[in-house]
Amino acid sequence: MHAPDGFINAPVSAAAGVVAAGAIAVSLRGARRELDERTAPLAGLVAAFIFAVQMLNFPVAAGTSGHLLGGALAAILVGPYTGVLCVSVVLLMQAVLFADGGLTALGVNITTMAITTTIVAYALFRGLVTLLPRTRRSVTAASFVAALVSVPASAIVFTLLYAVGGTTDVSLGKVATAMVGVHVLIGIGEAVITALTVGAVVAVRPDLVHGARGLRHKLKLRVNGELVDAPDAPAAEPVPAAARSRRTVWISGLVTSLVLAGFVSFYASANPDGLEKVATDHGIDKKAEEHALADSPLADYGVEDVDDTRLSGGLAGVIGVGATVVAGSGVFWAVRRRRTGEEAETADPTRTSV
How many other CB atoms sit within 10 Å of the CB of residue 258? Predict the structure, then answer.
């Protein structure tokens, strides 16, 4: 759903940019409360994983494909504020390095793909886990529903922006129907990917999943032929073992991201995604503008002067994952360092921050 330049006029694009900038500023402050020594290193990895999976367009219907938006996944794994930052980093990398999503439309894309999906998904997720039993299956099920709803919600917000600042005169009713219809189908794919990923991490390290904080798996004992809950026993995991476990999760996630972007992406659907298809069918793209960085060395997810298509796309994917994990990790390291500094100042009021 990456909107190019020219779909939305300059005033509305600028207004969306202001909204996006404000949301990012709020998220930077909110992320300080979400990031700790366990999750801060994983936040950059989540951004890289979302980048990699977004390269895997999957077919939905009638010559249309879809891809992960990632807001729900990021919000559930690392928190809503950090989630907004994760998806925003991905969108920035895609626009600047790969000419995917217009530069003047960056505010629109952050508003629809980062802010909307994260807010809608996390609000719905929290509501569901409050109502459902506090189990791993409930967390996975809630993530599925939240991700599913977040995608058409994003399509609705884009349609509203187009209704206010669209550059072509088209039937908004038809556009809205088409956008929501195709993105409900894409939402199913989003939901499957999100639920599988959240379920996999929850099964290994539920303490690393923001949305599963406080989740405990009760030990069952058989007493007189019946299963009963074992008494709670505070057994803290040794710090070295915890660090090794987090490192294993991080390395596994990075390797998975590199394989998806560098190899599996070659087999992704070549059909246009939901927004591209609707834009072509209904004339939204009549005034679309060429990307300002269309001649960049990595434009369209290929490496310039590399003739082999498979190798070119694979290298671009690997570069994208590397750039995203570095950029994301840098942002979240800075946020975490700022929090650590504030905590130190609170503990020692006489300390002067540098």
Answer: 18
121 found inside a domain = yes
Query: What pLDDT is recorded for position 344?
Result: 58
Return d(Cα 78, Cα 80) in angstroms, integer: 7
CA distance 302 to 305: 9
Residue with tokens 């990021």: 74
Query: Could you report the per-residue pLDDT of 59-79, keeping only the tens digit for each?
Result: 998 899 999 999 999 999 999
Q: Largest Cα–Cα distance in the chain?
A: 75
The 3-state DSSP class for residue 276 equals helix
Half-sphere exposure of 67 (CA within 13 A, CB side): 21
Q: What is the mean pLDDT of residues 308-329?
A: 96
Q: Which residues contact 35 (CB under 8 A, 6 or more apart)?
A: 43, 78, 79, 82, 332, 335, 336, 339
The dihedrals phi and psi of 315, each to the nearest 5 degrees, come to -65, -40
Specify the CATH number for the domain of residue 135: 1.10.1760.20
Q: Flag whether 290 is in a domain.
A: yes
pLDDT at 352 over 70: no
Place of tokens 């005034």: 287
Q: For all residues of the chain together, what is the average pLDDT?
A: 89
The count of domains in the chain is: 1
Task: Report which residue type is found at 300.
Answer: D
> Does residue 24 lie within any of the structural domains?
yes
Tokens standing for 86?
């994760």
The model's pTM is 0.89
Residue appearing with tokens 């895997």: 56
User: How big is the chain, counted in residues?
Assistant: 354
- Looking at residue 232, the DSSP 8-state letter turns out to be P
Rounded to the nearest angstrom, the gap between the alpha carbon of residue 323 and the centroid of all alpha carbons in its chain is 16
* Residue 334 within any structural domain of the chain: yes
Residue 32 has pLDDT above 80, yes or no: yes
Residue span of the structural domain in which 21 resides:
10-347
Rounded to the nearest 10 degrees, the angle between the axes of helix 172-204 and helix 274-282 is 170
